Amino acid sequence: MEVNRKVENIPWTPHPVVPGISIKPLISSKQHHLDVTCMLVTVPVGKEVPEHIHDKQDDILYPLKGKAVMWVEDVGEFTLEPGLIVRVPQGKKHKITNVVEELLVYDVFSPALI
Question: Taking the model in full, what pTM does it have?
Fold first, then answer.
C-alpha cells in the first residue's frame, strides 16, 4: 500500500472535459480505493472553467496561486485567490472566469469522482 509519493513524480494530464486545462490526480478512488478525489488543477490566463454541476460531490477548492473570478449558484461572484477556501455544495452550478493570473488550485471532491 502506497502511503506517500512525490507530487513532482505525478504527471499532468489534460482535463477530461475542458480543453487547455491540466490536472494532476493526487488521490483517486480508482487508484487508492478511497472515497475522496484530490487533484491539482491549472487554469491558464484567458481560459475558463465553464458553468457545470457535480450532482453527487461537494467540491472544495483551495487556490495555491493565481487570480480569477468564481461564481457559485445562490452566492454570486467573488475573487478566487490564495488565502480563500471555497466549498461548492453538491448540486450547485459554478464556474471560473476572468483568469488574470494563472491558477493553481488544490481541488478535493467528496465523495470521490468516479
Answer: 0.93
